[in-house]
Design goal:
Elements (H helix, E strand, L loop, with lengths): L2 H24 L4 H26 L1 H8 L6 H30 L3 H21 L4
Helix pairs in contact: 1-2, 1-5, 2-4, 4-5
Length: about 130
């Protein structure tokens, strides 16, 4: 696959995930909609990350440039990418607790706000790496 086309597809998928996340957040008071949409967003995002790694060797590139000066945007992108994936995991854990025990709503909301910030930063920084 042409690198430029692959990058465009990956960016389109990433934007689609952001739209899905917005849809899921909009329906946060409807668990039968919110939960599947958020889980599908996670699966698509994770698949996109795996595709990027397979196509571009992103991890190897990150490791090889980790000590290079002037690669701050790449380092920022890597950091927000890893943290946004961790945010998904945290959201699943806190969401399950909320669903099963009706506890931890505040923690889930705080995590969601941090996660959305990180996910948007991931999308924005992806244009510069």
């Amino acid at each position: 696959m042409d690198a430029d086309i692959g990058t465009r597809i990956s960016s389109g998928v990433s934007m689609g995930v952001l739209l899905l996340l917005a849809f899921g957040i909009y329906h946060r008071h409807r668990p039968r909609v919110h939960i599947p949409v958020m889980l599908v967003s996670f699966v698509i995002d994770l698949a996109n990350v795996i595709l990027i790694e397979v196509r571009r060797g992103a991890v190897e590139k990150a490791i090889s440039t980790a000590s290079a000066p002037g690669e701050w945007i790449l380092k920022l992108h890597i950091a927000v990418s890893v943290l946004s994936l961790a945010g998904y995991v945290s959201a699943i854990i806190t969401g399950l607790r909320l669903l099963r025990k009706n506890q931890g709503r505040h923690v889930h909301r705080v995590n969601a706000a941090a996660f959305i910030f990180l996910r948007v930063m991931n999308y924005l920084t992806s244009f510069y790496v």
